[in-house]
Design a protein that fits this description.
binds 3-hydroxybutanoyl-coenzyme A; 3-hydroxybutyryl-CoA dehydrogenase activity; Rossmann fold; oxidoreductase; alpha/beta; 11 helices; 8 strands; 6-PGluconate_DH-like_C_sf; N-(1-d-carboxylethyl)-l-norvaline Dehydrogenase, domain 2
Length: 284
């Protein structure tokens, strides 16, 4: 596999724009692909704002921020990813959506190009099987906010080759991140352990054990978590939390992973957390 210089990022949502941001800031050319212009505009605006945040904190010069932004080319055409050396998929957490994307990418990208997924819990082995190159499919799981969090969980599917793993590990290091190797299992390590914590915090609220504020205080003050579990669930998105709990329940088959009924009701109500203005807390 030749050196990675140009990276395709599919999806400009919360995770996708953060991933494009860190690649561009580290000197890679980025093709950022979305399905609608307004999503592309919103993602690009977020990158501009977050680069500006780094400039105002003195972590980046204005010149470097401008250069990073100039390295990102937006597109609505998946075919434009054909000249990328590696593609990271960061689309909606729906198996059917990802199946279509991996089938398309397998057609579009030349043989040998690595197809990475930022999926938070969907099986890498399953995604790889939608392609004719399972050896070159891998999980590259970033954490929100991507420009800040140091971890990349690198997930090996059953067929992922050592060369693919080595390339993605080295690439994560070039981004200033720390790659941690994990095998493919529902929720990997991060969400297998994190989500049941958030889900249990929701049960505590539902059962009237404590208010959301009190639950969060326990974790912020007692365990030094930067955000309490309910603020974090709102930050991640309650719909995303519910999707992940369902993947854990189905994939691991243990009823301890059942999603909290309050979480299900809130998602039904359209209370998705911070992005919708309301979750366990309210947002401007
Ligand atoms: N882009 C760039 N920089 C950002 C940023 C962004 N989007 N968001 C925050 N920052 C920077 C700030 O500029 C600030 O920089 P400084 O240290 O130089 O001053 C620093 O991050 C801290 O931000 P703030 O001072 O604004 O706010 P806080 O101190 O409250 O920190 C936080 C915010 C970093 C989000 C912190 O609350 C935190 O670490 N929360 C936990 C986040 C977490 O657990 N994420 C993982 C979620 S799970 C996941 O993503 C996996 C998925 O599969 C579900």
């Amino acid at each position: 596999m030749s050196e990675v210089k140009r990276v395709g990022v599919l999806g400009a949502g919360t995770m996708g724009n953060g991933i494009a941001h860190v690649f561009a800031r580290s000197g890679f050319d980025v093709r950022l692909c979305e399905v609608e212009q307004r999503f592309l505009d919103r993602g690009t605006e977020t990158i501009r704002k977050n680069l500006g945040r780094e400039v105002s904190k003195g972590k980046l010069s204005q010149q470097d921020a401008d250069a990073a932004l100039a390295r990102i080319a937006g597109t609505l055409d998946r075919g434009a990813l054909a000249d990328c050396d590696l593609i990271v998929e960061a689309a909606t957490e729906r198996l059917e959506v990802k199946r279509q994307i991996f089938e398309d990418l397998d057609r579009i990208a030349p043989a040998g190009v690595i197809l990475a997924s930022n999926t938070s819990s969907i099986s890498i082995t399953k995604l790889a099987a939608f392609t004719g190159r399972p050896e070159q499919v891998i999980g590259m799981h970033f954490f929100n906010p991507v420009p800040v969090m140091k971890l990349v969980e690198v997930i090996r599917g059953l067929a992922t080759s050592q060369a693919t793993f080595d390339t993605v590990k080295a690439l994560s290091e070039k981004l200033g991140k720390t790659p941690v190797e994990v095998n493919d299992a529902a929720g990997f390590v991060s969400n297998r352990v994190l989500m049941p914590l958030l889900n249990e915090a929701m049960y505590a609220v539902m059962e009237g054990v404590a208010t959301p504020e009190a639950v969060d205080q326990v974790f912020q003050l007692g365990m030094a978590h930067p955000m309490g579990p309910l603020t974090l669930a709102d930050f991640i998105g309650l719909d995303v939390c519910l999707d992940i709990m369902r993947v854990l329940l189905e994939g691991l088959g243990d009823p301890k992973y059942r999603p909290c009924p309050l979480l299900i009701r809130m998602v039904d109500a359209g209370w998705m957390g911070r992005k919708s203005g309301r979750g366990f807390f309210r947002y401007e």
